[in-house]
Specification:
38% of the residues lie in helices and 17% in strands. The chain is α/β, with parallel strands linked by helices. Strands 4-3-5-9-6 form a 5-stranded mixed beta sheet, with helices on both faces. Strands 1-2 form a two-stranded antiparallel sheet. The longest helix is centred in the N-terminal third of the chain and has 22 residues, at 64-85. The relative contact order is 0.14.
Length: 294
């Protein structure tokens, strides 16, 4: 005898609770009570014969079975949501959700987006920012723009451009910098990439044993701190040319180091939509000349 299909409400309750790791937040999203979410999860567990969540001192966690189930449901419900979003405001719109490193958004992407929107009025672009740590599945993303070597597991990556790094600081700090070795007396602002400062000092012909200074998870915030006199940041001057031209930021030395690149990434398992293909062709065409210009 065939088993009854799993109720859609139970799957939806699990998908929301798995994304938030919270019955309360799932209930708020679905406009039901927490008890209703708990009831639906229990019904799902009874139907599957396994537990999909467990409680710990740190809150709700997925079991191995829950971890196996979640990605497929994230993708499925995300596709359903995107389909219905196309019909918002009485017209068919194809939603495209892109997450990008904040530095790239502010320094290179925002000024170009009006051209994309003019070329593709039927695409509803949703732009989010990240600090280079992103989950394409859990966040329901079509693309993520990030900085690195392009070797992310399960991801198709297209190189957008390189972005050479150079020291950047405020005018008052720059007044004390005559030669690269002077940087060793300054607070060196660091990102999540510990290899960058040693690579720059090597390019400058200076041996360093250790780099110390405040650590930031966002290069955009790190450069803002440099402008306010907190120290010297290592970042792509090309993405801060407006601040340099206005005199808020100074590039004290021309020495640069080429590290990694910006990449347009998507899941290999994700079939590109019309909007995704259009965005990819447009974006890569915008940077087809190679490195970002200073």
């Amino acid at each position: 005898m065939a088993r009854a299909p799993i109720p859609l409400n139970a799957l939806r309750a699990f998908e929301a609770a798995a994304r938030h790791l919270s019955f309360t937040r799932a209930a708020d999203e679905l406009c039901v009570t927490q008890a209703a979410i708990s009831h639906q999860i229990k019904a799902l567990e009874n139907r599957l014969g396994v537990a999909v969540f467990r409680r710990s001192n740190r809150g709700l966690k997925l079991t191995d079975e829950g971890l196996a189930l979640a990605p497929t449901l994230f993708e499925a419900f995300g596709a359903i949501d995107r389909l219905f979003e196309r019909f918002e405001n009485g017209g068919v719109q194809e939603v495209l959700t892109v997450s990008a490193v904040g530095t790239f958004v502010v320094g290179a992407l925002l000024e170009r987006l009006p051209v994309f929107r003019a070329m593709h009025p039927g695409i509803d672009l949703r732009l989010l920012t990240n600090n280079n740590k992103v989950d394409l599945v859990a966040e329901g993303l079509d693309y993520a723009i990030r900085f690195g070597d392009g070797a992310w597991h399960g991801v198709e990556a297209d190189r957008i451009c390189t972005a050479p790094l150079s020291p950047l600081c405020g005018p008052s700090a720059a007044a004390n910098l005559r030669e690269p070795a002077d940087l060793l007396r300054m607070p060196l602002l660091r990102s999540y990439r510990p290899q960058d400062w040693p690579a720059w000092f090597q390019a400058a012909g200076i041996e360093v044993s250790a780099i110390r200074g405040p650590l930031f998870d966002s290069s955009l915030i790190m450069v803002q701190a440099a402008m306010q006199g907190a120290g010297v940041a290592l970042a792509p001057p090309a993405l801060f040319r407006r601040e340099i031209e206005m005199g808020h930021l100074v590039r004290p030395f021309p020495i640069e180091v080429r590290s990694d690149s910006y990449w347009l990434t998507r899941l290999k398992s994700r079939t590109p939509s019309h909007a995704m293909r259009a965005f990819r062709v447009w974006l890569l065409g915008q940077f087809s000349e190679g490195p970002l210009p200073d």
